[in-house]
Write a structure and sequence with these properties.
Helix 1 runs antiparallel to helix 2 and helix 11 packs antiparallel against helix 12. Helix content is 41%, strand content 9%. Strand 7 and strand 8 form a beta hairpin. It is built from twelve helices and nine strands. The strands form three sheets. Strands 1-3-2 form a three-stranded antiparallel beta sheet, sandwiched between helices. The relative contact order is 0.10. It binds zinc ion (ZN) (2 copies). One zinc ion (ZN) binds next to loops.
């Protein structure tokens, strides 16, 4: 923290930065560099035009924008928005390790924010997708916590009222429950559009293998909501829960490593594990002492690292039949047939 009162320096360049931030929802340093470079360049030109500076206006290149510049803009903007119950929070991305800054609205719950600009039909679909991530595709057998486009597409209509309303079981939610019966569902083209929108707004991420998962922003904003919706508050300490936290950094793990013991709840991010083991004599689970394999995965690798998936890929090449393969592996009742062949 600098001692300087940053509010004195709030000018048009900060407003422009805030606008860019609001349009994106999230920002990393790398994403901010070209934005701030453009803002600095325009600011310089303006000063020159107004006659405030005799020197020729300079063009700022993205790589000239420093981390300090970025942090000073983040903190100036934070101060400016706090009277409006907005806040900037940051979280380390589980995979890229980049720091992701999210603009958070403190007054409305995240589901309300997600619902802005979305119809009741679309929101019901979003809820079904999140339910699928945290409930259906997240079991002690397989913690995938994501799903591919084909699986999402199957969620375009609400399940028929046979097993109750929205989603299955715990996929709780007073906040999202519309009159489910009156909703007809989405068309495939609309599903694609909603998914693309969620990725563009920074709620979902789409991996190279085609899996959709919650983004760093969503995990920051939905943290409490996810725990309330999917975890059992009565469960004993150490019992398997749907939402689990990294033993090292205490953030939610949706991509990472798990204890080889199915019912044990110890998880580590890939990016956290090295430092975690460095301070320990043995690579064993800190709770149950099972040897830590580093090959029991949380996230899409729970599917893509299975022998069945690898074999299926070799057989069908890229594309063709891959998606139903994913579904077979994720829905398959039997164990992963790792030792087969
Ligand atoms: Zn971690
Ligand atoms: Zn364990």
């Amino acid at each position: 923290m600098e001692d300087e009162d940053i509010s004195h320096h709030y000018d048009n360049s900060h407003r422009a930065f805030l606008q860019a931030f609001m349009a994106r929802g999230t920002m990393t340093f790398n994403q901010a560099q070209p934005i701030l470079a453009a803002i600095f360049t325009a600011h310089d030109e303006n000063e020159h035009k107004k006659g405030n500076s005799d020197e020729e206006p300079e063009v700022t290149r993205p790589e000239q924008v420093t981390r300090e510049d970025f942090e000073s803009y983040v903190s100036a903007v934070s101060a400016a928005i706090s009277p409006f119950d907005m806040e900037i929070r940051s979280i380390t991305h589980q995979v890229s390790k980049e720091r992701v800054y999210s603009l958070i609205n403190m007054t409305s719950d995240p589901m309300t924010q997600l619902a802005t600009l979305r119809s009741a039909e679309e929101m019901a679909f979003v809820r079904r997708v999140i339910d699928a991530m945290f409930d259906r595709y997240n079991s002690p057998r397989m913690e995938v916590l994501c799903l591919d486009g084909m699986q999402a597409n199957k969620l375009r209509t609400a399940p028929r009222n046979e097993d109750g309303e929205s989603g299955n079981g715990n996929g709780a939610g007073e906040n999202g429950s519309q009159a489910v019966g009156s909703l007809k569902g989405l068309k495939s083209s609309e599903v694609e559009q909603v998914l693309r929108g969620l990725v563009d707004e920074g709620w979902f991420e789409r991996s190279r293998a085609g899996f959709y998962s919650l983004s760093a922003r969503a995990l920051t904003e939905l943290r409490q909501w996810l725990v309330d919706a999917y975890n059992d508050p009565e469960a004993g300490d150490g019992e398997w829960q749907r939402v689990k936290f990294c033993e090292a950094c205490r953030e939610i793990v949706t991509v990472g490593q798990r204890c080889a013991e199915r019912d044990c709840c110890i998880r580590l991010h890939d990016i956290c594990q090295e430092a975690f083991w460095r301070t320990r004599k043995e690579r064993v689970c800190p709770r149950c002492s099972t040897g830590w394999t580093g090959k029991n995965f949380v996230g899409e690798r729970a599917v893509t690292e299975t022998e069945a998936y690898q074999r299926g890929r070799r057989r069908s090449g890229r594309g063709g039949g891959r998606s139903s393969l994913v579904e077979d592996i994720m829905d398959g009742g039997e164990d992963e047939d790792e030792d087969e062949e």
